[in-house]
């Protein structure tokens, strides 16, 4: 699978900032304005990681990521929040088994490192699954 990433936010300026930050990174990046758009993207294509803003209309980012966890459990989930509330972080981590909790305004290097780490995590988990399936097939043979 290509290194596809989904960025979810409801602010065009944030989406533009992500485009600039990730311009030179080796990702196929999809953008969605809100949770409904994110779920539509995920219904059409698989992604390795999702970064979602916590504050979205109609549904909080943590709730979106918990839906993604159920429907697309292999996708690595990252939350981005303008709030540094410990309660928000705990809620996001517990609801969606969030891999990372990042704070706005972000540091470009931190976003890039988080995405690289998320893609590596995804790839490692997929390789582990592949090896386990191969071991099961070999035991049956």
Structure description:
This protein has 141 residues and is α/β, with parallel strands linked by helices. The chain has one domain: Response regulator (Rossmann fold, 3-Layer(aba) Sandwich), CATH 3.40.50. The chain is 53% helix and 18% strand. The chain has 5 helices and 5 strands; from the N terminus they run βαβαβαβαβα. It has helices at 12-21, 35-44, 61-71, 86-96, 108-140, and strands at residues 4-8, 28-32, 49-53, 76-81, 100-103. It has a 5-stranded parallel β-sheet with strand order 2-1-3-4-5, sandwiched between helices. Helix 3 runs parallel beside helix 4 (86-96). The radius of gyration is 16 Å and the shape is globular.
User: By CATH's scheme, which homologous superfamily applies?
Assistant: Response regulator
Structural class: alpha/beta
Spatial strand order of the main sheet: 2-1-3-4-5
Shape-level CATH architecture: 3-Layer(aba) Sandwich
Provide the helix percentage: 40-55%
Averaged pLDDT: 90
Tally of helical segments? 5
Q: How much beta, percentage-wise?
A: 15-25%
- Supply the CATH class: Alpha Beta
Radius of gyration: 16 Å
Number of E-state strands: 5
- Following the backbone from N to C, one meets helices and strands in this order, namely EHEHEHEHEH
Shape: globular
Termini separation: 29 Å
Annotated CATH topology: Rossmann fold
Residue runs with pLDDT of under 50 for 5 or more positions: none
Largest beta-sheet details:
5 strands, parallel
Taken together, the total number of domains comes to: 1
């Amino acid at each position: 699978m290509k290194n596809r990433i989904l960025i979810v936010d409801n602010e065009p300026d944030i989406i533009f900032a992500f485009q600039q930050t990730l311009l030179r990174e080796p990702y196929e990046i999809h953008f969605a304005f809100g949770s409904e758009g994110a779920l539509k993207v995920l219904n059409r294509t698989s992604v390795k990681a999702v970064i979602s803003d916590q504050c979205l209309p109609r549904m909080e980012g943590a709730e979106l990521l918990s839906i993604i966890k159920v429907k697309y459990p292999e996708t690595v989930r990252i939350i981005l929040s303008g709030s540094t509330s410990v309660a928000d972080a705990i809620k996001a981590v517990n609801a969606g088994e969030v891999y990372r909790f990042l704070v706005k305004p972000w540091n470009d290097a931190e976003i890039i490192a988080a995405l690289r780490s998320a893609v590596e995590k995804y790839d490692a988990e997929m390789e582990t699954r592949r090896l386990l399936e191969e071991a099961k097939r070999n035991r049956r043979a």
